[in-house]
Write a structure and sequence with these properties.
Elements: H1 12-32, H2 38-52, E1 56-60, H3 63-73, E2 81-84, H4 91-98, E3 102-105, E4 128-132, H5 143-152, E5 156-160, H6 180-186, E6 197-201, E7 215-219, H7 222-231, E8 236-238, E9 241-242, H8 253-263, H9 266-284, E10 290-291, E11 304-308, H10 313-322, H11 349-355, E12 358-361, H12 369-381
Parallel strand pairs: 2-3, 2-4, 4-5, 5-6
Antiparallel strand pairs: 1-7, 6-7, 8-9, 10-11, 11-12
Length: 383
Amino acid sequence: MSQINIPILDLKSQYQAIKAEIQTAVNQVLDSGQFILGPVVKAFETDVANYLGVKHAIGVNSGTDALVIGLRAMGIVPGDEVITTPFSFFATAESISMVGATPVFVDIQADSFNIDPNLIEAAITPKTKAIMPVHLYGNPAAMTQILEIAAKHNLKVIEDCAQAFGAVYKGDCAGCGCGEAARDRILGSYVGTIGDVGAFSFFPTKNLGAYGDGGLITTNDDQVAETARMLRVHGAKERYNNLMLGYNSRLDAMQAAILQVKLRHIDGWNHQRQQVAKTYSHLLAGADGVIVPKFSEGHVFHQYTVRVLGGKRDQVKQALAEAGIGAMIYYPIPQDKLPIYLGLHAENPVSNQLGQEVLSLPMWPELASAQIETVATALKSQL
């Protein structure tokens, strides 16, 4: 039995480093006796809005709720179509379906894992009302080109930032055919502040993760923000005065307090993730049978995902597991191939191919150089 034990993710080391801060924040909430919304949640919303440089930040129960409420707040209704990527976690398409709209899947770029902006216009119909790019694995999508298409066709843009807190658009997206002036306007912006709405997840495994569920909606639109705030509390602006059907989707004070502590460390953690990614790519450079991810400056590497070629991905994953090394497949079945959507959409060959090749390696900020080298050596031995 292998003596190596390198999981896909280890949250314990991060907690130990900030344990005193976390315990102080949690104790303050317990002493306050106020656990749902309230001043602690408001303070976190203010801090995160200031960090991102956005007018409104609205805490909700999960990243999925952030997408659903964000779509409704933008006015997406049954019968509408929303263009998105097939290569993402199910919540992306699920949120569109949950508001009664139809997800329209547009294939991805093999080197960025994100929606291919050059294919979007061909998917637009009179029913199309929005585009939902996903910044997959923490890598910003080709936002300038997406915004130009949205403006041309009067479409809304909702960014799925579930895996990309702190990611910055640097304008180095693959194959981008956007205009320089348009690109310069959003250059250096955090994802989630570029489109009409941003939706974040604070699931514990995320770069900025709570110790339970949590999510966030961001927008610079006052009306969207007001509607989102109503939707998170059963559609009410004032208690017992419900104006629309909404949700019970409030960020609790305990998670907000934890996130407020973690927000102070996020830049350092994301920088460490980038260094881990650079080390992996250096060690795997030139290895036959594997393609390392494209490194863009604003990428925050929620996952470090390689492509294993030659149909060997599953056996490589198994061999790593037997060696005591965790690896995961995000995602083995693209959304358009899931039973709920199967046969309803055109083929997306790049997405289909990557579903057979992607393999995510251990990734967390405190991952040691020796551990990275062990993983890289084990991977190369199986190619």
